[in-house]
Specification:
Helix content of chain B: over 70%
Distance between the termini of chain A: 43 Å
Distance between the termini of chain B: 24 Å
Structural class of chain B: mainly alpha
Shape of chain A: flat
Radius of gyration of chain B: 26 Å
Order of helices and strands of chain A: HHHHHHHHHHHHEEH
Structural class of chain A: mainly alpha
Largest interface: A-B, 101 and 98 residues
CATH architecture of the largest domain in chain B: Orthogonal Bundle
Largest sheet of chain A: 2 strands, antiparallel
Number of helices of chain A: 13
Radius of gyration of chain A: 29 Å
Order of helices and strands of chain B: HHHHHHHHHHHH
Helix content of chain A: 55-70%
Largest sheet of chain B: none
CATH superfamily of the largest domain in chain A: MetI-like
CATH topology of the largest domain in chain A: MetI-like fold
Number of domains of chain A: 2
CATH architecture of the largest domain in chain A: Orthogonal Bundle
CATH class of the largest domain in chain A: Mainly Alpha
Oligomer: heterodimer
CATH superfamily of the largest domain in chain B: MetI-like
Number of domains of chain B: 2
Strand content of chain B: under 5%
Strand order of the largest sheet of chain A: 1-2
């Protein structure tokens, strides 16, 4: 430690540590760095807030390091440098999140609010009869499709996932069941890593294998639900297993001591105790699969109006809708207006209408996902059992 | 817990034998349902492999490798996409791993205790954004903004340091082959796709690395501090060595995710099927997943089988990567 002692004024020495510069010295070097960056960029005539921040941060790294090196010594200077880099990395990671949310909210929000013919019509219209650059249309059919397919995926996944978790926690304790439990744990881990497109291919080939040759083009909602449940089951198992293991063994033993059969103990004691955690985990699993795109591209196709049937015909979903509108790109506007061939309504023509719709649909999807996430947090916050705390 | 400690007596049974058989019935139904669900997991994974193979079989049987004379070759078709998939994922990881380790350190060791959980949620929010929204954001917002950076990289490193001309194979080629070539706007190239992939795998690696770093024995850290180590020295000498295997496993899981990601690549990359190292050039690469997604609508018959075969290859690839990652986690887990 003696190497770090240098010839500073003794009054600044603190016995508790060798770090003797208060934090605002770094703020000072940071401001100087930003100022130098601003002057440099102005001199080069390339000034912008973003470039000033980036160049200023790099200058701050160098200057803060050198300053600390002179005043505090090599080891503390290294410590300062790493702290700055760590904070910088976090800021860097926040950048895409903030930018993405801003873009989605501002662009999507503008389209939703300004949607023709009436505000928020975007959420109550579908795409039937919308052609060319018609500045109309909406996502009602896609939202219904997304909710239906996710509902069915949940109907398939939650019982299987929950019972698998119960098996792992309550039954896989000895003998061959223990071996089976080890295998199941491993496979669930592997399933977590299945690429979503492979899940889509599975949903597709499972049904195509049982359909006659002439119907290989058939796509329907239930295929998408099966594909999604392949992605959903492992998340349900993982989170439920974790929650069930948190339930205290004393509770189970108390129930057995009262003569309660095992299955009733599980239903009335274990599941009831863990219900908040289970609900949270399941909600998060739903939030995860509701935004999956690739499996639905393969299995449910796309339509322009509402389809309520899971077993008959193609369905529209929000993620595939976003993808489709994005692919359509800029629209062609020969005239100022476009006429809907179905109901003869006349719409204004807009070149950016497809991209606008994609952003607005993205906003809709993000709202659904975020609402699910908030519900999950609230459930875990307000309904978690007091005994496990 | 053992199942044998259940007392068979029931206090308020209406009729003893009825109650008892009812209990046995309920117990056996419940245990069978549970074991059945466990077995179903086995069946499901087996079904994935079986049905993919079944549907890919027409392509395998009609291929050059199987027939010897057919016009298309499985390897020639699949290899460029495997190359594109792995290259995009590896470049994404090279960007994501250092940053997510630093973020994990920030949350676990630098941020104030009270803020740490909230900051963790912020990173988790990155994972909650659907991939198609990342694709939209990357394709419309990010790609034009990356153009100056690409032009800078291309003009700085893409041409200047060249191997001397007398060398075999590489003579006259730029030393930094990655940034060489001729990028043209819009920059729908592999580098852009990798940047978005990096953002997508960032929260996954961060979440695991954070857990691992938090598990560092507190006493060892305090011992290092007591010896006069700075915070960075504590991290360098205690936290990082302790968390090494966890970080490796986290990176492998991130790799698995990046390999299988479809939408970011599909919506950003202009496809091509070459073995080019020039990641800034447009229309040179394509990933397996994005290739399947972009061609499935028009494919039927053997073409569809061929796509399913590439999906099978992707499945095996990610299966191996994930199995290795899980093995590392399992081996290093109990120690902590």
């Amino acid at each position: 430690m003696s190497t770090a002692i240098d010839n500073e004024t003794p009054t600044m020495m603190r016995s508790s540590g060798e770090r003797r510069l208060p934090w605002y010295h770094l703020v000072f070097t940071g401001l100087v760095g930003a100022a130098i960056a601003a002057v440099l960029l102005l001199a080069l005539d390339a000034f912008s807030i973003a470039s000033m921040l980036i160049l200023g941060f790099i200058l701050h790294l160098v200057m803060g390091y050198l300053y600390s090196l002179v005043r505090e010594g090599r080891r503390w200077a290294m410590d300062r440098l790493m702290m700055l880099i760590v904070i910088g990395a976090f800021a860097l990671a926040m950048f895409p999140l903030v930018s993405l949310l801003w873009e989605v909210i501002s662009r999507g929000g503008a389209r939703v609010i300004a949607a023709s013919p009436t505000p928020f019509a975007f959420w109550t219209n579908d795409m039937s009869g919308i052609i060319g650059g018609a500045d109309a249309g909406g996502v009602l059919h896609a939202t219904i499709g997304t909710l239906l397919i996710t509902l069915w995926a949940s109907v398939i996944s939650i019982p299987i996932g929950l019972f698998t978790a119960i098996f792992l926690v309550e039954y896989a304790d000895q003998g061959w069941r223990r071996v089976l439990g080890k295998g199941v744990t491993f496979l669930v881990d592997v399933m977590t890593g299945i690429p979503s497109i492979v899940a889509g291919l599975f949903g597709l080939s499972l049904f195509l294998a049982f359909l006659p040759d002439g119907q290989q083009g058939v796509r329907m909602g239930i295929m998408g639900s099966v594909a999604l449940s392949l992605l959903m089951i492992p998340t349900v198992v993982r989170s439920s297993e974790e929650m069930l293991r948190l339930v205290s063994m004393d509770l189970r033993e108390a129930a057995y001591a009262l003569g309660v059969p095992k299955w009733l103990t599980i239903v009335r004691v274990v599941l009831r105790t863990a219900v908040a955690g289970l609900a949270t985990g399941i909600t998060l699993a739903i939030a995860r699969v509701i935004g999956e795109t690739a499996p639905l591209l393969l299995t449910v196709g796309m339509v322009t109006s509402i389809n309520w049937s899971m077993f008959d015909g193609r369905m529209a979903t929000l993620p595939t809708y976003i993808n489709q509108q994005y692919r359509n790109g800029s629209a062609n506007c020969m005239n100022d207006t476009v006429t809907n061939p179905v109901n003869q309504e006349v719409y204004a023509c807009s070149v950016t209408t497809n991209i606008d719709r994609a952003w607005a649909a993205a906003l809709t999807l993000i709202i659904i996902v975020m609402v699910l996430n908030i519900i999950a947090r609230l459930v875990s916050h307000y309904f978690s059992p007091k005994i496990s705390r | 817990m053992s199942t044998t400690d259940v007392t068979p007596e029931a206090a308020e049974a209406p009729t003893g034998s009825m109650k008892r058989s009812g209990r046995r019935f309920g117990d056996s139904v419940f245990s069978n349902l549970s074991i059945g669900s466990g077995l179903l997991i086995f069946l499901t994974l087996a079904a994935v492999a079986i049905f993919l193979t079944l549907e890919a079989w027409p392509a395998i049987r009609a291929s050059q490798e199987f027939e010897g004379t057919a016009e298309f070759s499985l390897i020639e078709y699949t290899a460029p996409y495997v190359f594109g998939t792995v290259l995009a994922a590896v470049i994404a990881l090279i960007m994501a791993i250092p940053i997510s380790m630093l973020i994990a350190l920030f949350i676990s060791h630098y941020a104030p205790r009270k803020m740490a959980q909230g900051l963790g949620y912020m990173i988790d929010l990155l994972a909650a954004v659907p991939s198609v929204v990342y694709g939209l954001w990357g394709g419309i917002w990010l790609v034009p903004r990356l153009e100056p950076l690409y032009m800078f990289l291309n003009s700085t490193f893409g041409t200047w340091p060249r191997w001397p001309g007398f060398l075999p194979w590489v003579g006259g080629e730029p030393v930094v082959a990655l940034f060489a070539g001729d990028p043209t706007a819009p920059m729908r190239n592999l580098a852009s796709a990798s940047v978005v992939l990096a953002v997508m795998v960032l929260p996954i690696i961060t979440a695991i690395a954070r857990e691992v770093f938090l598990q560092t024995p507190r006493l060892t850290e305090e011992a290092a501090l007591a010896l006069g180590a700075t915070k960075w020295e504590v991290i360098k000498t205690v936290v990082l060595p302790f968390g090494r295997s966890g970080v490796v496993a986290a990176s492998m899981l991130g790799l698995g995710r990046a390999l299988g990601e479809t939408m970011a690549v599909l919506m950003i990359l202009a496809p091509g099927a070459t073995f080019s190292w020039h990641i800034l050039e447009v229309g040179r690469h394509q990933s397996i997943a994005a290739n399947i997604a972009s061609r499935q609508a028009e494919a039927s018959g053997v073409d569809m089988s061929l796509l399913i075969f590439t999906g099978l290859v992707l499945f095996v690839l990610t299966f191996i990567i994930n199995a290795i990652a899980r093995a590392i986690v399992a081996r290093s887990g109990p120690k902590s």
